[in-house]
Design a protein that fits this description.
The structure is a homodimer of 180-residue chains.
Chain A: H1 3-13, H2 18-27, H3 37-49, E1 53-60, E2 63-71, H4 73-83, E3 91-93, H5 95-101, H6 108-134, H7 144-176
Antiparallel strand pairs in A: 1-2
Chain A binds a DNA duplex (28 and 28 nucleotides) through residues 2-3, 17-19, 22, 33-34, 36-39, 41-42, 60, 62-67.
Amino acid sequence: MDLRDTILGLLSWRPASGYDLKRIISNSEVFYWSGNNNQIYKSLIELQNEGLVTHQVHIQESLPAKKVYSITEKGLAVLHQSLLRAPEIPELRKGFLIQLAWAEILPDGEILALLEKYEQEIAGRLRMYQAQTARPGRSPDRSPREKYLWKRISENLSATTRTELEWVRQTQQDVRERKF
Amino acid sequence: MDLRDTILGLLSWRPASGYDLKRIISNSEVFYWSGNNNQIYKSLIELQNEGLVTHQVHIQESLPAKKVYSITEKGLAVLHQSLLRAPEIPELRKGFLIQLAWAEILPDGEILALLEKYEQEIAGRLRMYQAQTARPGRSPDRSPREKYLWKRISENLSATTRTELEWVRQTQQDVRERKF
DNA sequence: TAGAACATGTAAGACGTTACATGATTCA
DNA sequence: TGAATCATGTAACGTCTTACATGTTCTA
């Protein structure tokens, strides 16, 4: 599942401009790219050259014209193929664990301070996920099944973050009580 | 915590050759880079030019000579600074969630097949972590505290993976029972 | 009046991966 | 005899990010 597949997926939900895609990808944690123009506009041109998407120019009064992209039959077929590919294992990039790995050179107090800062960050992130899930209209909802799947996707991120929060709290407690 | 910091950290544990570092990084999930030569050998040269590491050539009979790198005082100071930086939030790249996001075009049976394949992958990964934790001598152990921290790091990955496993099993069950 | 939102695009560079190049030794 | 391990390095390429460039409209 690379950015191209993701764009095809988004367009299989509904037509969108490059700017729309940028906004969606930037604000989403699931679509984990930064949502920079360079990749998105280049990918759209590429996908169009391959006949997987088309676009129509919409002229707006008092706003710049925009190119609204739609997925083609061929694009849908390609998307279908990538959905059937073997699932990838998650890539977990936790810089904080590397920080902890060399924390031997720090006194207990500084390790605790780090753990507390990390807890704050994670707690904030969890609140963000929960607020985002509550907001309606942000996800495809073409059937009860699709609604369910998107709820589960959102719950996946929350569950992962909750586990992280429990982990850091337990670690804090152990360090405070010097349980080692 | 980038690759350079990670190399400094590893060298703060013990001197190592580029090849040693490559092996450690390749086999570790915490140090999440691929461990390719290009980055590692280039970083070592860079770090040496900045005076953060030095090396001694060890000539071995019946094996190629190697450059054994050590961290300098200056390198230790730089490492200390990066340990005190504000913790980064984990980057979770779960391609599978994106696959599920567009699974509306698949029948229940194919979604279930995907979920089962994913479960297998995750279960395998969890077994791998647990086996790796059991293996001794793979981590710094300069004090009970450091030993504890490394245990917690390893437990973090296991806990995250266990949560993922529970999530996929619950999702499977819901889809089987069509709970939506 | 300054900044955010809308809208499309390009340039430069950092970051990361695979594959290539070389060559001895060890093990199945 | 072929593959894996040890050991250092380079080339080519793909991915991803930040910043630049341009211009209007709306809001604080």
